[in-house]
Structures are given as structure tokens and as C-alpha cells.
């Protein structure tokens, strides 16, 4: 339905406009019936619908909905199409329950594996998180249901999440923590964004003008509205002026009155309020008009999708002697309380009431029949090594062909609201694995956890399947993989460390009582391990299959490209095993001669392909400027500097057998003005100033040579030569002021300033 929103706003009173800027209750926006503005409903996500029966009562029961795998699992599929399909199903369930906005996806970066909410987040890598979030958004919004990308921004811990001040440098903020949101806004066109509780560099996210206006609205062009996380408001009027449109939930009439008073007193221009109302109405009408009254969905069909999705997400971490897949004719001991009472989702606001629930024990019995025995092994709700339970499990395992132990992290070990203190599993789970493996060499461990764990029992298990929190159909999906109905194809979207001390943020997580310093900077996740040449337990992008793949060839469409161009990369991959399987082909870009600090390499492309036994295929990637760029803090933009870059492709961050080199030529100027401290290397990279910079640098070096006699007696000719070689190597990093300093040319300050002015004129600055 076409509406003249400007005309509607012109008819509204200041009080009516202000009323739209806060909720009606816990889950609804206010209506203004006099001018035809409806109320819309929103509800928690992101991996399932958590609509409460009574929107005004936070404690009321949730309606049944499909519980899909959590974000940590979904990202391990590395499958854009699958994520979009799940999003589409979520949108359908929202339509069936008359929900207009679902709160998700959650795209915050996994800065530390200790974060209690990591089960809900996608990845440690911003490109992967952005791609997963984008396709989640596209799927949901195809159904006319809005999404709310959260939690914007740099919300990477639960400790003091309401008050912690995140201190993060501009490059890290933009390259790591904002980059994960960018795709969901720019490519996915998410209709709403949810701001986080915390502060970023001294400003609450709810009133951070740099985040909400400069980045979100101006740079990324977001056309929707920003809402608070529940209760995340600080100063209401300041938030509105900074770009925050909607406060949730309703917290009384005072908030609206603050806005009214600010406008009437002249403290805030009414135009600011009008702009907020326009953004709100655009989304309210869009979602309200897209409602499908009487819509229903097939619950069984969505359950089947949940099972297929969970199987695509699970990661085979170890499979010694090709123990898996099991033969249904083998006798197996199923051990561990999680097999009968699964932990399939995280705790907190995303907790779903599932439409049905698969138990791994039942699913395994459906496949393997009477040869399946079960032992509880440990208590669900307490970490006590129960000798009677372990003895029962050991005796059962000893008499079977194989033992499958379901272990991991119980709810008390990880949840929204608190961070983990360690990476350990319950000792009762670890002791069970060790003791069973002593009598049963064919021991398989299936993990249920939302984040990495350390594995002191690694050598005891012959096979390990990372099941994450697989949703309501995770038990059936695990059985499908264990017995070969599905060939595992998931890969880790985060690094598994050997120990907590090995993690990048170990010295800076979770910070003090008021602030947390992101001291590791850009070196989050695999970026850190690669830079330090440390071997983690399992690297980023890692995952095994029941078949094998080889990477045979790589070619580029060009060997030199301008940053305004694109380059095509074609990679040949072959299934060299004896069964059909899926491989996730990963492309990383490695700068070879960067003038700024950069990670060794960064993920810039991936594709999941299915190949029959013996089949090969060509996988195509397109890279553009952003694939080679870093965030230049002087020009506040992405800058791909002139230089050589290796493009490496393979099956994980540490296995990249294919390599090709490309030269990138920048067409941008990496500074706003030439100054006395502009570096020679910056001018060398610009065609208009390269000749000048080369000559000026060489002249400066000649001056140094003439001064060499001062040092010759003490250093000798050989030492002097070495000194000069070192000085020459680093000379390009000097500022222009070296032309008139100690070893300078004798140029006057006036002539030097004229030179700078001439350079600026030549560059049009």
C-alpha cells in the first residue's frame, strides 16, 4: 500500500512523534491510530522464533518453533545458500505467528573463546561473519519480515556488558568489528539494527554518533531504524540526536516526555525527531503491509531442514584409521547423558521451545537396531565423577565394537549473561572419555558445546565429531554422520586453541571494572596464530571428510590490476576419494610488501562445492579493491596500496597449496594533504609524485654519504657500508622533513613549504 509518509508526519503532534520512539510493551511498537500508524510485533531470534504467548509479559511461555542450529554451528557450514534457506524458514514462522521483526542475526566477532554468548555468534573472521549474516538477512526478509542485526558494536563479552568501555583503535574497529556488520547492511539491506549495551571509546553505543550516523547511516547508507538492546538506553535525547530511533522495551512515559521537552525548549530541532519518525514508519509500514494473514508452515518440513542443516554444520575433527563411518551391523555403546537428554541450544534470550526434539540415542537405535546399548556416564546437572556411572559405561563399552561418547558443555558452563573462566569441559566428561578409551580402542566423541574446549583426552579418542549446539534435529544429524548417511562437510569458523594462555586476548579479557583494552588489535583468531607461528589444537577453516580432495590448479585473469578493477581467480579442485562429498574452498590474500602492519593473510573468498567420486570442478572467485585493502585512518577509507599480493587457496587457513601473485596499482591518494611528515613511500606509490620522491630520496641518501667521513675512522669501510645499506633500506619510511633536517640538502624552510604547496597543487589536494 502506497502511503505519503511525509504527509502523515506533518499531521502528527510532537507527543505522537515522540511516542513512536519507544515501545508499547516488551515486544510491540506503539500505534497512532488517529493517523493510521499500526503497531508491529518483534521477537527474539536469531536461530529460531522465541515469541511469547503474551507480548506484554516477559515470563510467559514461548510458542513452539523450529530450533535451528545456533550461530556457531551455522557458520561452520560455510554455506550461503543453506543459511539463506534457514532464514527463509524463520521468516515463514514469523509470518505464521504474526511477527514483523525477528531480532537477529548476531554477527559480533569471537574475540575470545571465553565469551559466554559465542554460541550465538558466527565467527572470529569478519568476512565469514558478514557473509553468513548477509544471507541470513536476505532469507528472512524475502518473506516480508524484518531483521535486526546485533549487537552494534564491539560487544564481545558478557562481563559488565552493560557498562564496559571498549577501547579499540580505529583500524581494528573498522577492519574487524565493524566489517562483520557491513555486509548485512550494505548487501543484505537489513531493515533494522540493534545497538549494544557497552561503550566504544568512551561513548555508549546507544548515543555513539560515529557508529550510528557516520558509519551506519552515512557510510553504509542504512535506511532503516536503530533500536536499543533491551534496556540499553543511556540518555534518551542524546541517543536520538546521535541516530538511535527506537528504545525497547517500554520503560514509562518519562522517556517520551524527555523528547517532547527537548523539542519544545529548542534543545533539539524537531527535524531530528521527524527524521527518526520517517525511518520508523518506513519499516513499520513495510513489515505491516507484508503480513500474510492465516499463513501456516509445514512443521515437519522445517524439522527436516533443521536436520539437514545440522548435518552440514558438524565438523569432523579426527578420524584415525577411518573409524567413521560406522557400519550399522557393528555393536555400539552409546554413552553420555547428552545422548538421551541433548543440549541442543544456548541459554538466554535465544532459548526456543522446539516443535519436536531428536535424541541421538533414539536416532542411532533406528539405524543400528538391537546392537545399541546405553550408559548415562555422568550427571547432567553436576560435575561429579560418579564411579558407579563410569564403571557401568566402561563395562558396556568393553563388550561392543565401538563406543560413542556424547560429551561437552552443560548449560551451567556457558550462557548469555556470563563469560566462561576456562576452556575446560566438566571433569566428569573428561574422566569418562579416558576410562572408556582404556578398554575400547574404537572410542568416538561427539561434542555438544557452543564454543571451543581444550581436549586433554585428545589422544584417547580415535574419532571426534564437533556437533556444536545443533538445534532440535541435532541428534538425528549426528547419527546420520556417524553411520555415513551424510558425509561430514563442516569446517571450523573459529580456531580451537591448545590452552587458554595461547589465545590472542588472554592478557586483555575481560578487562577491568570500567574498560577493556583490545590490545591484540587486528590479530584476532587465526590472524594471531599465523603471525606468532603458533600451532593451535585445530586451525580456522579445518574439517575432515569421508572422502579426499586435491587442489590442482590456480590461474588469474590478470597479473596486474588497478584498485578500480576486479580480478577473476579460477581454481581446480578434485574429489580423489571413493564417495560423494562437499569441500569448502577457501581463498586468502597475503600482502607481500605492505608498508603498514597487516595480518599474514586474511580470508577473502570461499565456496562450498559438491563433487562425485573422481569428479573435478572449477571454482571461480572475484576479488576487488576491498579484497586487498586496509582501513586508512588518515583518509577514513579503505585503501589498497600499490604492491604485490599472494592469493593462496586451500582447505583451511594452514593448508593452502595453491598460490599465485598479483600486482595491485593504487589509484587513490592515501592522505588528505601533503605535509612535512608525508612519507617518501606514500609519494612513490603515486604516479604524479613518484619521480620527485625517488629523486628527493636519492638526494637525501647522497647527503648521508658525504657525511660518512665522520664515521669512517670508528666503523671502517665495511661497517660504514653496512650502515649505509640499512639507512637506504628504511629511507622510504622517512618524512619529507628529512630533506631539510640533519642530513638534509640545505633547503630553506620557505622553499620547503613552497615545495609542499606545489605537491598539493599537483595532486589536487
TrEMBL record:
Residues 43-62 are annotated as: Disordered. Residues 583-653 form the Fibronectin type III-like domain. Keywords: Carbohydrate metabolism, Glycosidase, Hydrolase. One of its GO terms (molecular function) is beta-glucosidase activity. Signal peptide: none annotated. InterPro entries: Cellulose_deg_GH3, Fn3-like, GH, Glyco_hydro_3_AS, Glyco_hydro_3_C, Glyco_hydro_3_C_sf, Glyco_hydro_3_N, Glyco_hydro_3_N_sf. One of its GO terms (biological process) is carbohydrate metabolic process. Belongs to the glycosyl hydrolase 3 family. This is Glycosyl hydrolase.
Amino acid at each position: 500500500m502506497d502511503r505519503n509518509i511525509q504527509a502523515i508526519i506533518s499531521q502528527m503532534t510532537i507527543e505522537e512523534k515522540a511516542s513512536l520512539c519507544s515501545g508499547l510493551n516488551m515486544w510491540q511498537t506503539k500505534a497512532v491510530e488517529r493517523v493510521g500508524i499500526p503497531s508491529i510485533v518483534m521477537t527474539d531470534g536469531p536461530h529460531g522464533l522465541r515469541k511469547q504467548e503474551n507480548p506484554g509479559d516477559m515470563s510467559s511461555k514461548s510458542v513452539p518453533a523450529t530450533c535451528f542450529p545456533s550461530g556457531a554451528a551455522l557458520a561452520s557450514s560455510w554455506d550461503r545458500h543453506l543459511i539463506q534457506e534457514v532464514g527463509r524458514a524463520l521468516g515463514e514462522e514469523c509470518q505464521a505467528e504474526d511477527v514483523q521483526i525477528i531480532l537477529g542475526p548476531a554477527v559480533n566477532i569471537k574475540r575470545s573463546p571465553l565469551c559466554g554468548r559465542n554460541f550465538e555468534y558466527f565467527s572470529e573472521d569478519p568476512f565469514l561473519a558478514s557473509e553468513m549474516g548477509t544471507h541470513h538477512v536476505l532469507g528472512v526478509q524475502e518473506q516480508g519480515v524484518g531483521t535486526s542485526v546485533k549487537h552494534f558494536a564491539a560487544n564481545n563479552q558478557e562481563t559488565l556488558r552493560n557498562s564496559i568501555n571498549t577501547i579499540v583503535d580505529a583500524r581494528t574497529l573498522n577492519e574487524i568489528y565493524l566489517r562483520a556488520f557491513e555486509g548485512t547492511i550494505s548487501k543484505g539491506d537489513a531493515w533494522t539494527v540493534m545497538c549494544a549495551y557497552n561503550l566504544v571509546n568512551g561513548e555508549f553505543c546507544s548515543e555513539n554518533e560515529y557508529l550510528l550516523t557516520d558509519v551506519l547511516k552515512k557510510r553504509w547508507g542504512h535506511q532503516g531504524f536503530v533500536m536499543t538492546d533491551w534496556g540499553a538506553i543511556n540518555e534518551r535525547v542524546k541517543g536520538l540526536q546521535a541516530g538511535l530511533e527506537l528504545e525497547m522495551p517500554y520503560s514509562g512515559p518519562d522517556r517520551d516526555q524527555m523528547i517532547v521537552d527537548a523539542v519544545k525548549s529548542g534543545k533539539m530541532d524537531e527535524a531530528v525527531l521527524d527524521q527518526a519518525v520517517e525511518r520508523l514508519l518506513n519499516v513499520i509500514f513495510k513489515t505491516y503491509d507484508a503480513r500474510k494473514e492465516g499463513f501456516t508452515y509445514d512443521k515437519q518440513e522445517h524439522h527436516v531442514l533443521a536436520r539437514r542443516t545440522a548435518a552440514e554444520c558438524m565438523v569432523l575433527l579426527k578420524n584415525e584409521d577411518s573409524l567413521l563411518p560406522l557400519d550399522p551391523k557393528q555393536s555400539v555403546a552409546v554413552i553420555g547423558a547428552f545422548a538421551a537428554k541433548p543440549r541442543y541450544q544456548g541459554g538466554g534470550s535465544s532459548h526456543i521451545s522446539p516443535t519436536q526434539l531428536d535424541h541421538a540415542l533414539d536416532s542411532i537405535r533406528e539405524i543400528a537396531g538391537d546392537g545399541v546399548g546405553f550408559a548415562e556416564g555422568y550427571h547432567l546437572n553436576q560435575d561429579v565423577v560418579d564411579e558407579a556411572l563410569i564403571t557401568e559405561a566402561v563395562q558396556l563399552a568393553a563388550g561392543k565394537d565401538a563406543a560413542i561418547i556424547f560429551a561437552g558443555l552443560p548449560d551451567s558452563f556457558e550462557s548469555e549473561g556470563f563469560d566462561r573462566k576456562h576452556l575446560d569441559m566438566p571433569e566428569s566428561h573428561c574422566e569418562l572419555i579416558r576410562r572408556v578409551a582404556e578398554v575400547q580402542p574404537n572410542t568416538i566423541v561427539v561434542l555438544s558445546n557452543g564454543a571451543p574446549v581444550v581436549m586433554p583426552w585428545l589422544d584417547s579418542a580415535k574419532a571426534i565429531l564437533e556437533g556444536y549446539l545443533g538445534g532440535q534435529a541435532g541428534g538425528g544429524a549426528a547419527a546420520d554422520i556417524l553411520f555415513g548417511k551424510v558425509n561430514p562437510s563442516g569446517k571450523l569458523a573459529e580456531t580451537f586453541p591448545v590452552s587458554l594462555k595461547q589465545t590472542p586476548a588472554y592478557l586483555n579479557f575481560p578487562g577491568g571494572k570500567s574498560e577493556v583494552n583490545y590490545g591484540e588489535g587486528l590479530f584476532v583468531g587465526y590472524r594471531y596464530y599465523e603471525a606468532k607461528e603458533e600451532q593451535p589444537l585445530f586451525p580456522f577453516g579445518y574439517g575432515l571428510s569421508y572422502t579426499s580432495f586435491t587442489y590442482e590448479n590456480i590461474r588469474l585473469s590478470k597479473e596486474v590490476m588497478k584498485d578500480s578493477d576486479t580480478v577473476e581467480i579460477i581454481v581446480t579442485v578434485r574429489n580423489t576419494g571413493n564417495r560423494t562429498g562437499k569441500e569448502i574452498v577457501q581463498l586468502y590474500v597475503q600482502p607481500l610488501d605492505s608498508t603498514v602492519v597487516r595480518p599474514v593473510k586474511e580470508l577473502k573468498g570461499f565456496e562450498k562445492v559438491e563433487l562425485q567420486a573422481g569428479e573435478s570442478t572449477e571454482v571461480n572467485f572475484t576479488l576487488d579493491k576491498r579484497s586487498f585493502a586496509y582501513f586508512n585512518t588518515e583518509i577514513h577509507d579503505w585503501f589498497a596500496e600499490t604492491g604485490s599480493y599472494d592469493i593462496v587457496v586451500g582447505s583451511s587457513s594452514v593448508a593452502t597449496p595453491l598460490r599465485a601473485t598479483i600486482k595491485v596499482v593504487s589509484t587513490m591518494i592515501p592522505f588528505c594533504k601533503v605535509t612535512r611528515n608525508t612519507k617518501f613511500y606514500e609519494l612513490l606509490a603515486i604516479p604524479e609524485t613518484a619521480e620527485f620522491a625517488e629523486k628527493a630520496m636519492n638526494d637525501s641518501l647522497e647527503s648521508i654519504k658525504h657525511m660518512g667521513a665522520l664515521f669512517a675512522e670508528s666503523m671502517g669501510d665495511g661497517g660504514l657500508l653496512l650502515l649505509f645499506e640499512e639507512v637506504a633500506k628504511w629511507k622510504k619510511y622517512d618524512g619529507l622533513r628529512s630533506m631539510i633536517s640533519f642530513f638534509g640538502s640545505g633547503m630553506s624552510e620557505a622553499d620547503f613549504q613552497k615545495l609542499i604547496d606545489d605537491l598539493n597543487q599537483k595532486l589536487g589536494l
